[in-house]
Task: structure prediction
Amino acid sequence: VFAHIPHVPEVPLYAMLVAFSKDPTPLKLNLGIGVYRTEDGKPFLLNVVRRVERLLVNDMSTFKEHLPTTGMAEFNRLSAKLILGADSPAIKENRVTTVQCLSGSGSLRIGAEFLAKHYHHHTVYMSQPTYANHPNFFNAAGLAIKTYRYYDPGTCGLDFQGMLEDLSSAPSGAIVLLQACAHNPTGVDPTLPQWQQIRQLMRSKGLFPFFDSAYQGFVSGNLDEDAQSIRLFVADGGECIIAQSYSKIMGLYGERVGALSIVCKTAEVASCVESQLKLVIRPMYNNPPIHGASIVAAILKDRDMCNEWSIEVKAMSDRLISMRRQLFDALRDKGTPGDWSHIIRHVGMFTFSGLNPKQVAFMNQEYHIYMSSDGRINMAGLGPQTVPHLADAIHAAVTI
Ligand code: PMP
Result:
């Protein structure tokens, strides 16, 4: 009965990972995959996570029965506090409903499904370019995708004018997907005053903000600072949706732990929204897993552990900044043609290098460097020992 099903090719990023794993060259370098790595390219387990896991193993009160459909209440409360701030009036007024979801992806998917069912406008605007999976979450829910200008290849920075123009001509009520900080794939974020202008425009046009927060703390090293874009939108009393991921910020990728928060106008609305979220979640997977949420809750509720975590987040963000500086210096020292200052201007984990698909293919063939064809570099895949190799490859690619 399945004989008619055509085979679809692997998505390019995954195909690249397979090619990487088969490449026998010791020099090979994976800058494509979106995970944070140590200086020597190893997966990174945060110390605070290690510590909590040891405590959880010995905690006789832990259980393995089902969580409620909305997940672990304490995890939800702490996640809302982490993103909206300890003194958020919206939380105090009980206007925020938060549900535990399967990481950032699951939060985006549930949010999309909820909007498709209960929101009157079925078009989502997303940045051009955006995280490759973003359109899929919303398409799968039956929403139409449109884009707004975001990245300016001329300046390797934000096309702010283009973004404002496109949002101005979006129909009133349309949903706008915004990355809270550390934009994937470009590494380009609006400044706070620019966020303020985006907010004013969106509120005046009645555009609905859907925030994706997958890298809180990775830009400034400070968790509160990196949530400012979202907090601006919440401070004006308006509504929004927020998808949070703990994959990168706690290194919990495979635990699939995230949260979806919906900020409503009143506590009554929030309660109705939550009741409907359960109806979205139940037919999909009934309820989320316990372990990852237990780790996050244990860290966020304990002042000492939370401090330890924020120090580790700062160290990750510092390492990313240092890799940017080292790569930029190496290219400058080699006299590589072109202006590479965007590498140090970009923020978070990624840099849109400006390398074209031909140059990327050349670097792959000649230098065994694996990255996506759009030229995105994961700075966390680099270490001091591998910077010279990458600089050599970029130099060769732009001078052939
Ligand atoms: N949003 C953005 C911007 C991302 O970059 C990613 C992962 N690369 C996600 C969401 C989803 O990640 P996860 O499901 O692992 O939380």
The chain has a mean pLDDT of 97. Residues 131 and 303 are 33 Å apart (CA to CA). The radius of gyration is 21 Å. The longest strand covers residues 96-102.
